[in-house]
Amino acid sequence: MINKDFESKSFNRLERVRGYTKVNKRIDMRAGRITDQNSFLVGNLFVTILCMARILSIAILRSTGLFLNDVSRASINITTMKASPTTAKISGQLLTVVPTRPSTNPQVPTSFLWDGGYVKTQSPIPGTSGSTEHVIIVNVPGFLMEPINPEPTFIRLGHDVNSDHFLEINGGQTTWQVPHDALVAACELLWAKALEAKLPLKSIACVNPSDANSFPYQLSDGTSAVISVKASNLLAASEGKRITICPLCEAKVPNMRSHIGQHILCALSNTPENVSLKEPVGSVLPCGFCGRSGLPECSITIKVPANGPPVWETKCIYQHTFKYGFAETGSKNKPCRNVPLKCALCHPTLPPEPGKSTCRTPVVSVDAVWRYNMVDHILNGHEEYSVPGHRVSGVALLAVVWENIRLTDLEQTAARIQKEHWQVGQEGDKENVPSSGSRTRKRPGLESAASLPSKRPHTSVQPLQFARTLIA
Ligand SMILES: [Zn+2]
Ligand SMILES: [Zn+2]
Ligand SMILES: [Zn+2]
User: Fold this and answer.
1) 381 phi and psi angles, rounded to 5 deg
2) Where is the segment annotated Disordered (predicted)?
3) Which end of the chain is more exposed for a tag (fewer CB within 10 A), N or C?
4) For ligand 2, a single-atom ion, which residues have Cβ within 5 Å?
5) Mean predicted confidence (pLDDT) in 186-194
């Protein structure tokens, strides 16, 4: 099911977009007539959202059939058509469009022009090994369509298009164009409507074009023109596929946790990103899988068994499995050590009772804190402690807690953090001292507090210090 958290942008944005007027003068390009402003006719143009290989894209279609309660109509009132729930259905042919060349003037937006063509697909001829190509026709529910009223355009007058692309325009030199930003707004609006209607992802029509360049529509640099990254990622997740498009920078990445971790470290250290982020890193305790804040599905819990790696649980759609031990240590290829941890201050491992060598604490799930959020967590949740570089006053952090916070040289270098913004170390800390020769330390403290077996005795100093703060 589609998730409600991807809430809608306002309707108004679509209507404000240039060229995307509400249906006032509807021009039927074939007949050249202006039709009744309240009805949608067979032959009129509309946009909807379609899937292609788990990518959700805007699609421009020419309607070939209109149905109300499964009865074919020549026209349908637009309000009736778009109502939700609706019994109105619309079928249409998927059109090919070509982008204008990017202008050197940023005031001139990219537009898409109809080249007179249709997106086609191959289908097998029954009983033979051959196949035949035909125009893709899709059926969509009325509420998932938006009528469009594109601007007529003279092809020869436009210097920003290659007129060779328009050989399929029969007889004429005119076509129509739709601005890129109108298509972006329409895609967001239609996706929001699909969410609102709790439309199962599977019911959004899928197409399989024979020419992969024809759909989803592409910009002149070959990138997808109008797709919903969030929707596409949900589609992948709904099929149990691992999501590979970063929700923040929209790059394709092999390891989301590791990649998002670098965005978070950049944000924490005010290091400028190499790429422009479509969405900034969440400002409050960002999720280690998606970098966003405050989404209920991103809350994460952890269970730390006496033996074996911790077990975490989240409903973030960007989650994926990873080897906890490796991730916690970090490596040259995957330096990011942002893993969910059990806060040793919220959930102290108490020393064994007198006369017993071990302490039996039940293994339960508790709220986890991502390593890169641990500083904020302690600053706000454990005000009695000092945090190097952030808060001078307070009790020094226990070594096990500091190990949960400490960043390695490797991960700070990988996030391109300038040395003067590197994490301030705590006393007794070796690695961040420049003269340190050893890059990897193998000592018990490297393990997080969470993964320390509960039977391991504490040093004599720590429990005392701990007990004092617990009483206070
Ligand atoms: Zn990214
Ligand atoms: Zn998340
Ligand atoms: Zn805590």
Assistant:
1) -100, -20
2) 421-461
3) C
4) 287, 289-290, 298, 316
5) 86
Nearest CA among 55, 373, 6 for reference residue 192: 6
CA of 331 to the centre of ligand 3 (A): 27
Task: Identify the weakest region by mean pLDDT among 55-69, 167-181, 257-271.
Answer: 167-181
Q: List, in sequence order, every residue forming a beta bridge with 120; answer none if it has no partner.
A: 135
Distance 211 CA to ligand 1 centre (A): 29
Please give the distance, rounded to the nearest whole angstrom, from the Cα atom of residue 401 to the centre of ligand 3.
9
pLDDT digits (tens, 9 = 90+) for 67-81: 999 899 998 888 888
* 152: Cα separation from own chain's centroid: 35
Instruction: Using a pLDDT cut of 70, give the percent of the chain over it.
Output: 75
- At 97-106, the pLDDT tens digits run 888 877 777 7
Question: Among all ligands shown, which has an atom nearest to the Cα of 258?
Answer: 1
Average of per-residue pLDDT values in the chain: 78
How far away, in angstroms, is 320 Cα from ligand 3 center? Answer: 25
Nearest ligand to residue 260 Cα: 1
Q: How far is the CA of 167 from the centre of ligand 1 (A)?
A: 40
pLDDT digits (tens, 9 = 90+) for 111-123: 888 888 899 998 8
Instruction: Output phi, psi for 241, to 5 deg.
Output: -85, 150
Q: What is the pLDDT of residues 390-410, one digit of tens each?
A: 999 999 998 889 989 999 999
Give the residue from 228, 273, 233 showing the smallest Cα distance to 253.
233
> How close is the Cα of 318 to the center of ligand 2, in Å?
6
Q: What's the 377 CA to ligand 3 centre distance in angstroms?
A: 6
Question: Considering every ligand atom, which ligand is closest to the CA of 249?
Answer: 1
Single-letter amino acid, residue 383: E
Q: How many Å lie between the centroid of ligand 3 and the Cα of residue 460?
A: 22
Distance 300 CA to ligand 2 centre (A): 9
Ligand at minimal distance from the CA of 404 is: 3
Residue 256: nearest ligand to its CA?
1
Residue 139 has pLDDT above 80, yes or no: yes
